[in-house]
Amino acid sequence: MFQSEFKKIIPYSPYRTLPAEIIAVKPYTSLEKLFRLRLKGNAEFDYVPGQFMEISIFGSGEAPISLCSSPTDKGYFEITVRNVGSLTGALHNLKKGDLIGVRGPFGKGFPIDDFFGNDILIIAGGLGIVPLRGLIRYIMHQRKDFGEVQILLGCKSPEDMLFNDEVEQWGRHIDILFQCTVDKADPDWKGNIGLITNLIPGVTLNPMRTYAVVVGPPVMYKFVIKELLKKGIPDRQIILSLERRMKCGLGKCGHCQINGIYVCQEGPVFKYRDLRTLGEAL
Amino acid sequence: MTEKIVSKEDLKKILEGLMKTSELLAPGKEGDLVLFKPVKNPEEVFFAYPNSLKPVKEFFFPPREELFKHEIREGKVGLSSEHQENRKRVIWGVRPCDAKSLLMFDKMFDGEYKDSYYLEKRAKSVLVGLACNEPLDSCFCLSLNAGPHAKEGLDVLITDLGDDSYLVEGITAKGEELFQGCGKESGEGERTRKKELEEAAKKKIRKTCQPPPDLESFFEDPYWEKVSRKCISCGVCTYLCPTCFCFDLSYEGRDCIRFWDSCSFSPFTKMTSGENPRREKKTRYRQRVYHKFSYFKKNFGEIACVGCGRCLRECPVKVDIVEIVNQCSKDKTKD
Fold this sequence. Notes:
Chain A is an alpha/beta fold. Chain A has helices spanning 4-9, 86-92, 112-115, 129-141, 164-172, 218-230, 263-266, 272-275, and strands at residues 18-27, 32-39, 52-57, 61-66, 77-82, 99-106, 119-125, 149-155, 176-182, 192-193, 210-215, 238-241, 257-258, 261-262, 269-271. Chain B is built from ten helices and twelve strands. Chain B has two domains: 2-203, no CATH class; 216-332, no CATH class. In chain B, the strands form two sheets. Chain B has an eight-stranded mixed beta sheet, sandwiched between helices.
């Protein structure tokens, strides 16, 4: 599960961090920045979209952060972080050339092996686009391995949209059906306005060969799942990512435990079928 | 396994010897409290106590532990090597319930990821048990595959036979080693006396913990709201619990620190986004109950409780987890 560099230090202490250098910073909104990182010494780094890293800064602490790049992006990995707390605030103050600590990758990512040859419906709400961007990049790099690909993206306003340069490409891509909706917008906004849930009934899909991959705020899941089930997508083909306080990443510290499973180990990506029996999941 | 009889004088001599060769920790009085502390004088070692206020987990999993330090050398950041004192450590007077709890810690910290910080402390420690002749009303170890004279997890067990004589039962080689060359062979009478004491102690334990086999089916029951109403979420039960191991990680300056945390606290599950899956007290209390009596059992084959009773004795509002777990199914049928 771990890439080789991190594996080397685990026997000594799984809490030790690997130094990673910030090789680029890209602000997307007033609150969110993308950080492109590289392990010191350019060490090999393998992962699956949907997995997360523990990111640390001296004096500020450590937090789980989703990877937002794809393993097909060679020579670097990326995270996109909203400036909301002390650690994320400190991270936002860093610039190209600065070092941070990383551990991981942790958890189970999107079940890409299951996706091969099937249709994919990606539904991203708010910051949910961050881990899904890694999956979208993966799919675009290996486009022939997948069937129909549709993306539904929802955010508060056009100004809050992350990865807008890439979103534009997705919209233009002939091989991808792309729709976007915002909660509110100026009159010159040409896209949809309203909840992402409203887009689902209009989507054309073959439920038996569609995997719906949903990431968004907890409140979104209940409504989106209902719509997807109405479409006839089986619960084992509805894929979700849970947000929890995954502090250690090793299934020890207890913060992310729900109904006896550790989200940092069994998740954060789950099949809806497996979450139905976990009372605390959704 | 060897058995021998030693006198109070013998024990004092052994303690004196251990003070010189090892780090020796034993129960001692601190005002009205009994706590494990470094032994400076064998006379201070306390034998007549039901159980220490705090379990021995803190010696393996300290409340606050520096895991490693980042150093800046010649302008470059590096990690300093972690130093642990490797002198042998003897923990003297451990009650069987607390010894058993460490086996549960082993399951947690000696699994797929080896926790070197914990395992180094385990490897250098010898546990000298003291059989429990006077269990308290709040003790319930018998119903949890433990007992007042249980040997599981110990290296050697001492039973106070009265009349200043003690039966010493070696359990592991490193336990037997401590008592080499002292005492005399035990006789039939002494072994019978020990059996009697054990049976008498068992009879004193009346409290039993019997979680319903279908505990999982009560997960959504309003019961948890009702029983957790008086809990003040202070976390005392988790801090004093010999099997609670939840922790947090942080940085103090350049030091990476691990410290105890508690599922009783609302921020335990709170995320930076502001989302908190266990904001309600009943969900936190239910988590504690289910982690011990359902999840740990599912993951590791046994209940994460040794029946030491500290959570009952020290709870400021007298929440009784045993009653709550035992009553759970009955309450359901009443509704």
